[in-house]
Specification:
It is built from 14 helices and 13 strands. With about 400 residues, it is an alpha/beta fold. It has two domains: about 190 residues, Glycogen Phosphorylase B (Rossmann fold, 3-Layer(aba) Sandwich), CATH 3.40.50; about 180 residues, Rossmann fold. Helix 2 packs across helix 3, helix 6 crosses helix 9 and helix 7 packs across helix 12. Keywords: Transferase.
Length: about 400
């Protein structure tokens, strides 16, 4: 491994999404390992990352109007490509894309001979009816020199469905940012959201999306309210580039139809400092997704001392067990409602004394960075081999 690598990480947004958090945390850990890291991201004029980074950050200014998802993706792709190209891209030892948008920018630069190739992390893949979006998604991993996945499940999918031999490099958790230490900020967040002391708070993070099963969670919460009338559901986050408007409208109509308007709070994107505080205000994190790449917020919640109800599906089953979460069947309303109630009333107890610390110590960003560096080194070595 070179004493110091020049590494370019690219991501699709400055907003707090899992892949963006991964890029920021990986960048920080790579800097701590002694490497020179530049993080590229597209941004509208005046936008900045939701969190500061210790590495060099280059924001690629998005030009033109984005009147639909295709135009939005294209504008971000163009901005990233222009920005990376302007920074002497061949001076980087490794260029690593965290998503389909930035992966296409690097794929185009590779095709044009501007860079030798790139690494791509697949967090998860979506289904797109639009053929251009589908083509972009495929090209972003198909043209990569090396594909990484954040879970064994997606590594298996890439192998079985697409014939790609990917490497699994899990996420980590920042134990300085996420901890059980309560602060005055916790009380401020509780008051701002109107959360009553003693009333059970169910928290969902990631916004209102079909993939997150937010409607299924709402139906389960409605069942919970029959037994715990003071319960409150908080749905936080939701800074997505994809169009979830129809699903969100259906969710809000269901909230009104169930008479839960005063029991459900939708926060939208939050300030970064609010997130650990919100975890500590919650009695349970509901992570009942139908499909996930990894589920980073599970680690963050556990680090804050918040119990988790999780879908009994991969990737959660790869790193969680009964001592770390309360399982639920995501397609079964009663199963989710019962799991939430079991956590809230104490019938299911998470092992915060032994199992949780062991998990969090194993899932560090430092360990993730070192595994990335091994993969980068192997890629560089393969490029230096003589060709016949």
């Amino acid at each position: 491994m070179p004493a110091m690598m020049r590494i370019a990480l690219t991501t699709h947004s400055v907003n707090p999404r899992g892949g963006v958090v991964h890029a920021l945390e990986l960048a920080s850990a790579l800097v701590d390992e002694g490497h020179d890291v530049t993080l590229f991201a597209p941004a509208a004029r005046g936008e900045t990352f939701f969190r500061e980074s210790p590495c060099r950050v280059i924001l690629a200014t998005i030009e033109g109007s984005q009147y639909d998802t295709v135009a939005l993706v294209d504008a971000r792709l163009r901005a990233l490509k222009t920005s990376v190209k302007a920074c002497d891209p061949r001076s980087f030892d490794v260029l690593h894309a965290q998503d389909s948008i930035s992966g296409n920018a690097l794929a185009e630069l590779t095709a044009e001979g501007e860079i030798a190739g790139f690494v791509r992390t697949v967090h998860h893949l979506d289904h797109f009816d639009n053929p251009r979006l589908a083509t972009w998604q495929t090209r972003a991993w198909q043209d990569a020199d090396r594909v990484l996945c954040v879970s064994e499940m997606w590594t298996r999918v890439m192998r079985a469905t697409y014939g790609v031999e990917a490497a699994t490099v899990p996420n980590g958790v920042d134990l300085k940012r996420y901890s059980t230490r309560r602060t005055k900020h916790d009380d401020m967040v509780r008051q701002r959201l109107g959360l009553q002391n003693g009333a059970p708070v169910v928290l969902a993070v990631g916004g209102i999306e079909a993939r997150k099963n937010t409607l299924g969670l709402l139906d389960a919460f409605a069942e919970l309210v029959k037994r715990r009338p003071d319960a409150h559901l908080v749905v936080a986050g939701g800074a997505s580039l994809l169009d979830h408007n129809a699903y969100t409208r259906a969710f809000m109509e269901r909230v009104a139809g169930l008479g839960l308007t005063r029991a459900v709070t939708i926060t939208g994107p939050l300030d970064d400092a609010d997130v650990p505080a919100l975890f500590r205000c919650a009695d349970v994190l509901a992570m009942v997704s139908l499909r996930e790449g990894f589920g980073l917020v599970v680690l963050e919640a556990l680090a804050c001392g918040t119990p988790v109800v999780a879908s009994k599906i991969a990737p959660f089953t790869e790193y969680l067990d009964h001592s770390l979460c309360c399982w639920a069947t995501p397609t079964d309303t009663a199963s989710i409602a019962n799991a939430l109630e079991r956590v809230i009333d104490g019938r299911h107890r998470t092992d915060f004394n032994h199992a949780v610390p062991a998990l969090l110590n194993r899932m560090s960003w430092q360990a993730s960075a070192r595994k990335h560096l091994d993969i980068y080194s192997a890629l560089l070595a393969s490029r230096s081999l003589p060709t016949l």
